[in-house]
Amino acid sequence: MKKYVSAPVRKRDAMALVTGQPVYTSDLLPAHCLTVKLLRSPHASALIKSIRTDTAKKVPGIACILTWEDVPTARFTQAGQTYPEPSPYDRLILDRRIRCEGDPVAIVAGENEQAVDTALRMIKVEYEVLEPILDFTKALDNPILVHPEEDFKALCDVGADNKRNLCCCGVNEEGDVEKELAECDIIIDQTYHTLSNSQAMMETFRTFTQLDAFGRLQVTSSTQVPFHVRRILSNALQIPKSRIRVIKPRIGGGFGAKQSAVSEVYPAIVTMKTGRPAAIEYTRTESMTNGSPRHEMQIHIRLGADKEGNIRAIDLYTLSNAGAYGEHGPTTVGLSGHKSIPLYGTPRAYRFAWDVVYSNTMSGGAYRGYGATQGIFALETAVNELAAKLNMDPCKLREKNMVKQGQVMPAYYGELLQSCTLDKCLEKAKAMIDWDNKYPARQLENGHIRSVGVAMAMQGSAISNVDIGSAEIRLTDEGFYIMLIGATDMGTGCDTILAQMAADCLDCDLERISVQGVDTDQSPYDCGSYASSTTYLTGMAVIKTCEQIREKIVAQGAAMLKLSPDEVEFDGKAVRSLTTGEQVTLPEIGYASLSGAYPVISACVSHTSPVSPPPFMAGIAEIDLDPETGKVELVDYAAAVDCGTVINTNLARVQTEGGLVQGIGMTLSEDIQYSAKGNLRNRNFMQYKIPTRLDAGKLRVEFESSYEPTGPFGAKSIGELVINTPAPAITNAIYNATGLQFRKLPITSEQIAMGLLKKEK
Amino acid sequence: MQIELKLNGRVCKADVSPDMRLLDFVREQGCASVKCGCDTSNCGLCTLWLDGKPVLSCSVLAVRANGHEVTTLEGLQADAAEFGAFLSDEGAEQCGYCSPGFIMNVLAMVKELPDPTEEQIQHYLAGNLCRCSGYQGQLRAIRKYLLAKQEGKL
């Protein structure tokens, strides 16, 4: 029998996508759907004194205009997280208080875009403009409060205090950090800063809503978290969850952006108020200014080592900018320490402390890497600084200190590391790039400098004891299977890889498994696709479901043959007597199971995990730097990945390549700047430059698979991990080329050229 | 304004407003492969052919297509499937949202440059953004597609 796991299987929706079939949210709009748009605040902080909508409402074709007076007064969070959400309930659909530029002021719905645009211009708003707090390093205990309201609510004990602009705080430590640092020969004591990068998925946020024949709210949305959206809408609209159904069609990319319910509430409230279908499509600008970007973080590290380069202590403090609302604030910050510090197995003590503060900038959300990216940039850069100070090859320093399989990781919730080939990854990446000959740099004849830089990375695989993956498999009357999943394929290919696993478990052709997802009325509960959970967690749910359905098939097949289950075998096509060879085929079993004579054959199993096994990787960048202009060109990038067993060799490779290029953009070009009044300058692809194919360079990816005993077929995760190495590796390469140590991203050509000029002087 | 054009080989008459983008017009005509990905003519998602030449339909008014021939991926299904199979075999379509615009430009490139160098490929397609794939798989697909064409396998 052909096996599918670890093969380069084509994505099952691929041909529909490449031939341009109408399968995305906006391609499926119902007839006579209202167009919904938002009037957004030009101010970063203000109170709405008055809104006049009477003239706007008279525009022909306008169906409804809603303001803060028309929406429920219960606060909620847009964050797509398992209940009780760690993110504070700090939002209203429309609020009288404006907390960042672009905060919605009115919802306008009309028969067509033209009418809506006209009405938007005719709404008269009088603002009391307030002084914003824009610098998040000054937000804590600032007299300017972002959330002064009394009904601010934190469901979990995350240390939130809205009267201090505090979204969450905490500390976690083991050993005596101060004592260990005092005994160290060398201490790197530096602060690193990353910005609130935008996911820039090609399909912007969008949703349409309608009432079904039963008067229930049916929501079709480009979301990673359909089940969470159901709860978020219930909270926001104050209607029972049983009245809401959420459907996910094909998704044009997510990268975490769509782990927040950014666009869903607006058409939903229009449909509830008017009874009409309603649709919203965010413009690229709206997606950039009021989406759910990466949290800006400033990370202070004290990294101590002895003269031989043994790392003895890590003290890491993260200050994270929640922005105007707290979505994913309390959780992203955790990864900045918990998924960076454990890269090193040698420290005798560590401390990780954090504050997440509100400010009048756009609110953060979930972006691939989810805090680990920021923490790893900081720690890996500090480690490279340590290597420089020790005059030691940064790879050698890592070989000496990296975490190893079999170790317990104190900073990673005390988990035992059961699968890790980080050492082999580094060795492989070094060999791929020819590190020993190329480190640190060489001058080319044209004056350019070629240099290399290195970094390691880790992530998790699902949130331990929180995330849930599920699968339901039904045997049909024709003997093929229908697999229902609640995990959301957003282009990543989970509909395919989960089917690959099921096909191998059930010994059948891939074509005999029809995958359906996601519809909250039909799919089994799954928290959604985020936290690098789908392959690892839903994959295990698939395996367990297959085990159950196999047992049922064998039991019924045996009964039909008048034998006991241990007297038969099932080869995926038929149940056969071990002695006589007499058999009943799968279609016969399927049909009989639906004829009333036997129980219907289906199985549904959920899975959760007490551990979150980290995938690892090593990345080495080779750059070409022009000292005249500061221009950095990526010549080569060698990446070696340990994601456990690779389930789909093509998709894992493309995930890695895609993650690397996003990391390259974050490092070299994706800038976020605000005006003095708090208006975002980088509002579209003109000012926020994501890499084109000319910026991506050559990327090479190899896999160094470990075997994770708790994962499906030995697999761990890959989706988020792969964005984490470019920033520290390229920063290191720039240092090796120029001696300039950058600690804030992005590193632009101008900064390099100016830095070199300053150095000359 | 009244316009008459050929859309994917079919004569199409319509009454459009003077400020309607060609992008919105073709979507209204059922060509859902044409996507809008940005507000600034940067992303290439809305690429279609005007008289056989690739253009960004977000930057062309529908009235400018009056009397011309417009082709979208809906009109090139066999070619789309042929090249798309190579893209799919690399897993490089990923979310697929940029695929139609990208494929329109790949097909235009192949008409224009039968044997392009890697540099020519990268420059021809520089305006087609993709956030998922990191572009490497797209390049692998193009190379294999061109090779198969040269070897007469297609």
Explain what you see.
The complex is a heterodimer of chains A (761) and B (154). By secondary structure, chain A is an alpha+beta fold. Chain A has four domains: 14-132 and 199-289, Aldehyde Oxidoreductase, domain 3 (Alpha-Beta Complex); 135-197 and 293-402, Aldehyde Oxidoreductase, domain 4; 412-456 and 613-761, Aldehyde oxidase/xanthine dehydrogenase, molybdopterin binding domain (Aldehyde Oxidoreductase, domain 4), CATH 3.30.365; 469-607, Aldehyde oxidase/xanthine dehydrogenase, molybdopterin binding domain (Aldehyde Oxidoreductase, domain 4). Helix content of chain A is 26%, strand content 24%. Chain A is built from 18 helices and 29 strands. In chain A, the strands form seven sheets. A seven-stranded mixed beta sheet of chain A has the order 3-5-1-12-9-10-11, sandwiched between helices. In chain A, a hairpin with a 5-residue loop joins strand 18 and strand 19 (449-458). In chain A, helix 9 (372-390) packs parallel to helix 17 (726-738). The longest helix of chain A has 27 residues, at 534-560. Chain B has 154 residues and is of the alpha+beta class. Chain B folds into two domains: 2-74, Ubiquitin-like (UB roll) (Roll), CATH 3.10.20; 76-150, DNA polymerase, domain 1, CATH 1.10.150.120. In chain B, helix 2 packs across helix 5 (136-150). The longest helix of chain B has 15 residues, at 136-150. Chain B starts with a strand and ends with a helix. The mean pLDDT of chain B is 97. At the A-B interface, helix 1 and helix 16 of A face helix 2, helix 3 and helix 5 of B.
Keywords:
heterodimer; A: 761 residues; alpha+beta; Aldehyde Oxidoreductase, domain 3; Aldehyde Oxidoreductase, domain 4; 4 domains; seven-stranded mixed sheet; 29 strands; globular; B: 154 residues; Ubiquitin-like (UB roll); DNA polymerase, domain 1; 2 domains; five-stranded mixed sheet
Give a concise summary:
Chain A is an alpha+beta fold and about 750 residues long.
